DNA sequence: AAATCGGGGCT
DNA sequence: AGCCCAGATTT
């Protein structure tokens, strides 16, 4: 005997398949029995919900887990967030990606301190005015933290709804998302809006999954679902396919003298803005070309050691990288070349806990702790 | 409306 | 190798 049968037979008598009004009752019952325990669900204060929702944008739950508690421990409230140095923010976000999220998080914290007396606003409209908060996050915070009946429509919800209704519209289009938000507004239960929104996403993430076959046999909404009726679940949702990636070739330089290594802070705008990286050259360069480049920048090269090739894939770009570990005689005093002017010199050991370096350079960050095999007596 | 912005896990 | 993820902002 199906444990949802009772609900579903009731529901079937009242609503046609595909009618969103049939969703809340079986969905919430399922959620009460199947919800995951997540750190930000324990004490859903506005600040905790907000931070978690920003971290979760385009990011899986499992990826966020190790970041969330550390962030809350370091910056326990909005005031602390508003005052944190950018380095601290980026270090807390290092490896999570989309680094503008954390800068916008701080901008919003400052807005809240200045315009709202340090208290997170509770209405959908006021939340929307905050940097980094769009329709999804405004709906999530207002419903989960404040119990307001606003829908929170993310990729999960769009997929679940598309399947239930056999909706062919392209979910990448803004107007489709807006329409779904409007439709859910009519349906969202006023007594449990936060649970409803989380349950829709939970169903999408755990049952009505995007890659591979969804687990329809355990779905509390299968009797409502038009796609399940003719087993066409995997044809939905309709989504525009991703643009092709461009490939970029780079040569990464790990430059060291006896004590220091070289890093470079990326520009404030664009890809990986404000993150630290190793100096690099465009294209695949030979050891001779690297040596020539470094000589132009006022360095005396003692040894060049090739490192393994590496590849890093972004959403819309690929980096194919060669790397060299380079030993030079002395770094710090020399600032003569065209590029070396904005190099910074750091102790390799402090790199790991002071400078945020994106995952793209993970294969070469190891080079900081490697020995160069040049006996000190040589100098 | 389209482009930009990360990183990782799964098929 | 391709897809997608508790999206938002900029162009």
Automatic annotation (TrEMBL):
Coiled coil: none annotated. CDD domains: ENDO3c, NUDIX_DNA_Glycosylase_C-MutY. GO terms for biological process: base-excision repair; mismatch repair. Binds 1 [4Fe-4S] cluster. Residues 55-206 form the HhH-GPD domain. It holds the Pfam family HHH. GO terms for molecular function: 4 iron, 4 sulfur cluster binding; 8-oxo-7,8-dihydroguanine DNA N-glycosylase activity; adenine/guanine mispair binding; metal ion binding; oxidized purine DNA binding; purine-specific mismatch base pair DNA N-glycosylase activity. It comes from the Bacteria. Keywords: 4Fe-4S, DNA damage, DNA repair, Glycosidase, Hydrolase, Iron, Iron-sulfur, Metal-binding. Its cofactor is [4Fe-4S] cluster. It catalyses: Hydrolyzes free adenine bases from 7,8-dihydro-8-oxoguanine:adenine mismatched double-stranded DNA, leaving an apurinic site. Its EC number is 3.2.2.31. NCBIfam families: mutY. Belongs to the Nth/MutY family. Adenine glycosylase active on G-A mispairs. MutY also corrects error-prone DNA synthesis past GO lesions which are due to the oxidatively damaged form of guanine: 7,8-dihydro-8-oxoguanine (8-oxo-dGTP). This is Adenine DNA glycosylase. It comes from Waltera intestinalis. The gene is mutY.
């Amino acid at each position: 005997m199906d444990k949802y049968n009772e609900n579903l037979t009731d529901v079937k008598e009242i609503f046609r398949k595909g009618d969103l009004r049939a969703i809340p009752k079986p969905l919430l019952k399922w959620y009460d029995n199947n919800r995951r325990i997540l750190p930000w669900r324990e004490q859903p204060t506005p600040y905790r919900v907000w931070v978690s929702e920003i971290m979760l944008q385009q990011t899986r739950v499992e990826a966020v887990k190790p970041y969330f508690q550390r962030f809350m421990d370091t910056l326990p409230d909005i005031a602390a967030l508003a005052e944190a140095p950018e380095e601290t923010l980026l270090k807390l976000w290092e490896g999570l990606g989309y680094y503008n999220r954390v800068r916008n998080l701080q901008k919003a914290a400052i807005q809240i301190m200045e315009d709202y007396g340090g208290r997170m606003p509770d209405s959908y409209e006021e939340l929307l005015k905050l940097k980094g908060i769009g329709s999804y996050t405004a709906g999530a915070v207002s419903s989960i933290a404040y119990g307001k009946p606003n829908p929170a429509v993310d990729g999960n919800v769009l997929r679940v709804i598309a399947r239930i209704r056999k909706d062919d519209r392209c979910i990448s289009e803004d107007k489709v998302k807006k329409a779904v938000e409007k439709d859910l507004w009519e349906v969202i239960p006023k007594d449990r809006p936060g649970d409803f929104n989380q349950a829709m996403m939970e169903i999408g993430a755990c049952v009505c999954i995007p890659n591979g076959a969804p687990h329809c046999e355990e779905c509390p909404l299968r009797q409502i679902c038009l796609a399940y009726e003719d087993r066409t679940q995997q044809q939905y949702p309709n989504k525009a396919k991703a643009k092709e990636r461009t490939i970029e070739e780079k040569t990464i330089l790990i430059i060291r003298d006896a004590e220091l290594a070289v890093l470079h802070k990326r520009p404030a705008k664009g890809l990986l803005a404000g993150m630290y990286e190793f100096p690099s050259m465009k294209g695949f360069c030979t050891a001779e070309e690297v040596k020539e480049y470094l000589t132009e920048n006022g360095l005396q090269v003692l040894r060049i050691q090739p490192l393994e090739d590496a590849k890093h894939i972004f959403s819309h770009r690929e980096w194919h990288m060669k790397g060299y570990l380079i030993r030079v005689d002395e770094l710090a005093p020399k600032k003569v070349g065209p590029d070396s002017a904005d190099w910074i010199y750091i102790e390799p050991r402090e790199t790991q806990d002071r400078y945020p370096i994106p995952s793209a350079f993970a294969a070469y960050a190891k080079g900081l702790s490697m020995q160069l095999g040049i006996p000190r007596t040589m100098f």
